Batch of 3 targets.
Target 1
Amino acid sequence: MVQKHQATHLHYDFRLEMDGVLKSWAVPKGVPEVPKIKRLAVETEDHPLDYISFEGIIPEGNYGAGQVEIWDQGEYRLKERTEKKIVFELIGRRLVGRYALIHTADKNWIIMKMAS
């Protein structure tokens, strides 16, 4: 699932259901829709599974305050998972195809759509 999140700065929250939680990354420029474009994805705290359908406004004074809307939803098939790399196939309304998250440093990852 991907949420468009207008907080202090517009970004997209990319979430994969893993290990009983939603593993989460903030993607400032959005998840790429075409192959070979690399985008920064900053790992954030895990979210509970019930957050998967959240849309609405997080009130001022709360962490992440601002408008949240579901930008894309669907399923994914995990292809490979190591400490430094997650490869998966997305089957969403907007995002379809094979993707990779590559860990670079600290909480920074790169997300990219792979060529078919």
Note: Strands lie at 2-6, 10-18, 21-27, 38-47, 56-58, 66-72, 74-81, 85-92, 96-105, 108-113.
Target 2
Amino acid sequence: MQDEASLIERALTQRDNAAFSSLVELHQGKIRAFLVRLSKSYDLADDLAQETFISAYRRLSTFAGKGSFQGWLFRIAYNCFMQHIRSSKRRTEVTDEFSAQHEILEDNYENLSSQQIDLENAMQQLNEQENASITLCHGYGHSHQEAADILQLPLGTVKSSILRGKEKLREILTLKNEMEQAS
């Protein structure tokens, strides 16, 4: 497989569909996983990932080469997710989705430890901004600045979201452990 830069160049200058397909193959797993985490739905994540890559193909000429291509794709994915939220006027109702999310985790993460499942359940209780910020920085290794660029938020907002999110995770997991020990 060619390197990413030459694939981008071919897709940009020649509108080479094969080159763009190779870029999709290279990044679709991480984009889809990011969207699953945000949307809490595998089917929706698939739809949003497809929408992300269609949008990326249409807007490929806007990729200036500043920053990573993957970061650019994450920004598009996040924007697609937020557009979905706005257009459906649906906000995450954690209490209603908690049991459904638990079933999804059981069905799709059979090989995860109980601590990993607890963390996934706790992550679902964060708001979208906290979830996305923590996922990008701690799950995918992006810097705070890269996450801010992807999410189109001020750097301080991303840092605050991570701090608040981590604190919520600590509280949720501590409470769960205390409840398990009491029973």
Note: The radius of gyration is 18 Å.
Target 3
Amino acid sequence: MRSPKSTQNNKHSRPPLEPFIHSLETLSPLLIYCLLFAISYIENIIPPSPSDVLVVFGGYLVGLGTIDFTIALILTTAGSITGFLTMYKVGDWFGESIIERRKLTFLSLDSIHTVEEWFRQYGYWIIVVNRFLSGTRSVVSFFAGLSKLKVLRTTLLCGVSALIWNWLMIYAGALLGKNWNSVALYLSTYSQIVSGIVISALIAWGIRRLYLRNKKL
């Protein structure tokens, strides 16, 4: 018999959207495919979103034989690429206007120009690991467009990044079966760690630039 404490811990470890996610099992394979594409697209536009958890659940459905692994991988990757390119074009076409009108109120003009310069120097490397930077994907794509990175190379690199990440998520869901929801806890922890590392790296880089600038004066 389970103790009340263990039952409570299990409840806390479950994704908050799990009842909704499980209801997706009643959908037809076609609708599930459409949903996987849509959520992979939307999470690049409106972060944060539970896209990774849903892709893992898609892997669980692959394990059940409800949907096909290859089709799920192609559609989630296509959704990721098109979502990335949408924000890329927003940055390319409207980025300067958005910055001039101070729509990004959480960033100072100096920090924006610093990020731009960072992208011009290391942008393609950032895109390669973009899919693994949970919570910052739309920011990466926006600044990639703002920095005028080459669209064909950007598309290829973000596609490779998305393909690897989505393969891992779908495979994990298929491998874990009914325990697919345990991935959500690890994804949450992973997201917090990665976000902390990215923020720390940006702060360290900004401090170094400020130090070098003052040294020249």
Note: The two ends are 71 Å apart (CA to CA).
